Amino acid sequence: MTTQTGTTALALQGTGAPPGFALAVGGTIAQLGAMVYIWGTYAGVSHADFLRGVDDCGVNFSLGGCNAWVTAVPWTAAILIQLVFAAGVWLLSYWNHDSEGAPDSSIIDKLWSITPFLNVWLFHWSTVDPTRPFGSPRTLVMGLLTTSWGLRLTWNYARKGGYEAGVEDYRWAEVRKWMPGYQFHVFNCVFICLYQPLLLMAIAAPAAVAAGHPDVALGPCDVAAAALFSLLLLGETVADLQMFDFQTEKYRRRAAKEPMGAYSRGFIETGLWSWSRHPNYFCEVHIWFAFYLFSIAAGGAALNWSLFGAVSLAALFVPPRASCDVTEMLSSKKYPEFHEYQARVPRFYPVQFYPSLW
Q1: Tens digits of per-residue pLDDT, 272-329?
Q2: Is-contact 123 211, C-beta < 8 A?
């Protein structure tokens, strides 16, 4: 969602309302509280393990002691790493502030595609021992799949100019208008810098469950999980390609003053975008539910604590006034006929259940 191909002004009244400060920050705090409860109650995270990690990997660092701690409690290790990472993102956001002192919100966007698969490889590393020199076959497969996901998303973000200096998702400028003054600083700290890194770790949690059962053989459930993950990754790739090609050609014709033809309405409504108004988000959300199936295949309960990550990601995109609605509100300010597309094509799921929600 960068401006590499071109920009369209937000000149219309638009539909819908942005999420307010109280809803955005309050909802984030509620989810952070749920993380603390679920991970402390069901994932075996303890205060003593944290202190041991601070000692072995920090105050009294030794390579052997730190490695032993990571191998023994990889999920706790991942949390501690993410908290340090979150603090770094927060500090860097102010180091990179704009001319008005607003923090740089784009840092986490640049790291979104990298963080999950690095966590998966951390969990895989915890399964390596003399009897398994290459680690668990299941976590190895999970690492390869998530790396494919991450490299594809990194490529897609890079070709839109996302890694260029000074480039950010245009939506952040709008969010800063919705949350003026101290509100955006709080939002930056709570949602952008703290919650999102933990969410990116949470979606990788099924690999932590699988790492706890490294000797369970691969089976049909793993095949189903890998196939579904790959199919959704393909769908997300096609959706992003269709969007990029559409926007590139639209702005090329506009710059060359050529007839706009099928691009005259300004927004894509063909291909996968004729089935769902957010096919890329649909695939992205469900990829992590497919990933969750690996935790079940490894011997975890059908309903286990690692499901929280996929559910949290869905909550970020799907409910009213979440990311899907924010994107549509901005699109309705750009394109006068966008409301007709909203009425005709399902919002999220390719089958129309409840038009206003799905």
Answers
A1: 999 999 999 999 999 999 999 999 999 878 999 999 999 999 999 999 889 999 999 9
A2: yes
Residue whose pair of structure tokens reads 């990311």 in the numeric block: 323
Task: Kindly report the pTM of this predicted structure.
Answer: 0.92
